[in-house]
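anyone else get weird line breaks when pasting these?? whatever heres mine. first is seq + tokens for prot A
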Amino acid sequence: MKVTLTNSAKYGGEFYIKGQEIEVDPKHVPGLIIDRVISPDTEVPEEPVETDVNKMNLAQLKDHAEQNSIDLAGATKKEDVLAAILKAGEGNGTEPQGSAADQA
């Protein structure tokens, strides 16, 4: 994303001067604000949220289930939690790929 520098700074191995507009990685924006290199009014982009339950880790799956009021019925293993979410119809509509061991 493009930002305008409020102070001179080094970014990506290059030195830039105050007022210059440069392209930065959106994940660096919060740090650049803290370092007073860009304006605190700069919109901080949200990190993309993983929506494919087949790609989520166990913690993400449990959060997804809680946010969508899915009863996990005591499931603690990733493959069991994933199965409960898919059974509830809250996944992306696809079945997990590979064996249950591959999902761990």
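and prot B, same format (seq, then tokens)
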Amino acid sequence: MTASDRSTPLSRAQNDLLQTLSARWTMHILLALHAFEDSRRFGEIQGDIPGISNRMLSSRLADLESSGLVSRHVAATRPVTITYRLTDLGQQVAVALNRLRDVAASSAKSQ
């Protein structure tokens, strides 16, 4: 990234994505989905994130889906089965978040 890239205003899409990522619990959800290669059901995701409410998880998953980070699949079973998985963009973001988490962990160890 050059200095001129950093001074260029963000596009609306870039700004929207950063707003989504900055919302509470969003990074936890992305990391929880990234930890598994398969699709995850709502209850499985919630079990991986202590303290998140049903309502908040539902809201954040909807935001992530509309941002193109998570895909939602509804299977015509009885009862209906809904699963979530990271999109390609979501995978890229989750990899970057894992790197940030590693930097934070090594920073905490050195202090």
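btw re prot B: The chain has a mean pLDDT of 91. The longest helix spans residues 88-110.
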